[in-house]
């Protein structure tokens, strides 16, 4: 094991000597290449950060919209129940009740659509974070 380690050490010493003996322009070329690679990675990281922040902001906006839609649905449901209690039996009232039900169902559909959109955005956000971590 010691001989193996000594051999690895010698190989590393030879590698270091080769680097030291390289002409200066090759060293500079390698430094420039590494700096360029670093700059590209930093740029990609910055772009990913901006995208993640944007998606996070959009997710928060959609969550607020969803909460207000849910609140509106609850309010409409209460109004509908009160209206049904007060005006039970009139056919005209039944028509308006049906309209209210349609509005309520449409709001529920919108809420479901918003929830699906939020789920999709959260999944996309998760995937972008994985890509950022990979980069």
TrEMBL record:
GO terms for cellular component: cytoplasm. Keywords: Coiled coil. One of its GO terms (biological process) is toll-like receptor 3 signaling pathway. The keyword Metal-binding does not apply. It comes from the Eukaryota. PANTHER family: TNFAIP3-INTERACTING PROTEIN 2, TNFAIP3-INTERACTING PROTEIN COILED COIL FAMILY MEMBER. This is TNIP2 protein. It comes from Platysteira castanea. The lineage of its organism: Eukaryota, Metazoa, Chordata, Craniata, Vertebrata. The gene is Tnip2.
